[in-house]
Design a protein that fits this description.
Blueprint (H helix, E strand, L loop, with lengths): L2 E2 L16 E7 L6 H12 L3 E2 L2 E2 L7 E3 L25 H10 L2 E5 L12 H14 L5 E3 L28 H7 L3 E3 L4 E2 L4 H8 L7 E5 L5 E5 L1 E2 L12 H6 L3 H6 L2 E7 L3 E4 L2 E4 L7 H15 L3 E3 L2 H13 L1 E5 L2 E5 L7 H4 L4 E2 L6 E4 L2 E3 L2 E3 L2 E3 L12
Parallel strand pairs: 2-13, 2-16, 5-6, 6-7, 7-8, 8-11, 9-12, 18-20
Antiparallel strand pairs: 1-13, 3-4, 10-11, 14-15, 17-18, 19-23, 20-21, 22-23
Bound molecules: zinc ion.
Length: 383
């Protein structure tokens, strides 16, 4: 469920500052209408007053749909058809992608009702990606077996089968997707965690390499589910958080990726769209709990993309030390080192410079450590 963070050297800290644990929430977007989505996201992410009260100043990103067969979800395109126009939310979605509050493509859309996806619809998305230069780091499978453009090793999943007309591998490459989540990559506290891992030979790691059917290699990641028979909604969020042994989590300097459908609550077994009226003490207590952990300085919360990239950066960074100079090394050559090394923190205080190839990186000095700070996210200023 949670995984101790790993680094190559003892000098590289698992976490910056006094943080002892790292958390992210991976939100499958179904259930959200755009207005509720944006107001709720402002409440969680911003620090100022908003329609739902004072912002909590946490970090929370989301996935989105290009198409939706139901009006319950907002989507990029107006209709689930190849000849459709963009929806009234398309430009706002593009803006949220640029700001980093949307970082995940959730399936190719929501096709859980009719399963009516076509090659023309895939081409339409491709065109849109190219026109707007859309980049997304993460793809997550969505919904039931009608979503045949899902990827992975279950029979219905054809999105990564090159011989299938509904192949989407080229589209994932164009988007720049690095991280993939497929359905079996869930952690539960019960025996099924081990059963699935053995049956499908899935490593018990937060992130690991995985080749899809088309032989293309991605990084896969696990999400913490632990909500019993049904997938987790906002109503089960508190229960998920409370099932974590926080003492051990912090002791082991761990990371956890919480699987959620924040756009739904469950009432008497029924799924109900989450709205402002549901944001009562019962739901709010999860957020207040996270907020107090963050304010205590123990817990670092990052958006999904920042979380996955941070852990990958730690797993790939090696250092050489020459007196008071630090030289950073990675396997692949980087275009934007100051972005890449965000959060990197070293147990060494007498440091004059941190260098990657021929560029010097800015860093902050702390007590017995130096840190390349995380860049601040821009405000979520969308109406
Ligand atoms: Zn979904």
């Amino acid at each position: 469920m949670y995984y101790p963070i790993k680094t190559h050297s003892k000098i590289i800290r698992k976490l910056p500052k006094a943080y002892q644990g790292l958390l992210t929430i991976s939100n499958d977007v179904e259930g959200f209408d755009f207005d509720t989505f944006i107001q709720f996201y402002k409440k969680i992410n911003s620090t100022s007053n908003c329609e739902w009260g004072r912002g909590l100043g946490l970090e929370l990103s989301s996935s989105f749909f290009f198409y939706s067969e139901t009006k319950k979800n907002f989507s990029y395109f107006k209709e689930p058809l190849a000849e459709t126009e963009k929806s009234e939310y398309a430009d706002k979605i593009l803006n949220l992608i640029k700001l980093g509050y949307i970082d995940t493509i959730h399936g190719l859309g929501d096709f859980s009702q009719f399963g009516n996806c076509s090659k023309q619809m895939i081409n339409r998305i491709m065109k849109e990606i190219k026109i707007n230069n859309i980049k997304l780091d993460i793809f997550t499978n969505h919904g039931n077996t009608k979503n045949v453009t899902n990827v992975g090793f279950q029979k219905y999943q054809k999105g990564d089968n090159e011989d299938n007309p509904l192949y989407i591998g080229h589209l994932l490459q164009e988007l720049g997707v690095k991280f993939i989540w497929t359905d079996k990559l869930v952690d539960n506290k019960n025996i099924w965690r081990f059963y699935d891992s053995i049956k499908y030979q899935l490593p018990l790691k937060q992130i690991f390499k995985m080749k899809l059917t088309d032989k293309k290699e991605y990084l896969s990641f696990r999400r913490f589910r632990n909500s019993g028979k049904f997938a987790p909604t906002h109503s089960e969020f508190y229960q998920q958080l409370k099932s974590i042994n926080w003492k051990k989590f912090y002791q082991k300097k761990s990371s956890i990726n919480i699987y959620q459908h924040l756009g739904y609550i469950r009432q008497k077994g029924k799924l109900i769209k989450f709205e402002k009226k549901h944001f009562t003490n019962e739901i709010e207590k999860s957020w207040n709990f996270l907020s107090s952990e963050v304010n205590s300085g123990r817990l670092l919360i990052l958006t999904q993309k920042r979380f996955l990239n941070y852990l990958m950066m730690l797993s790939q960074t090696k250092i050489q030390i020459n007196k008071n100079s630090i030289y950073l090394e990675t396997k692949d050559k980087l275009n934007n080192p100051s972005n890449y090394f965000q959060g990197l923190s070293l147990n060494k205080s007498n440091v004059d410079k941190i260098v990657y190839l021929d560029s010097e990186l800015e860093f902050e000095k702390g007590e017995k450590m130096v840190t390349i700070p995380f860049k601040k996210m821009g405000g979520i200023c969308i109406k």
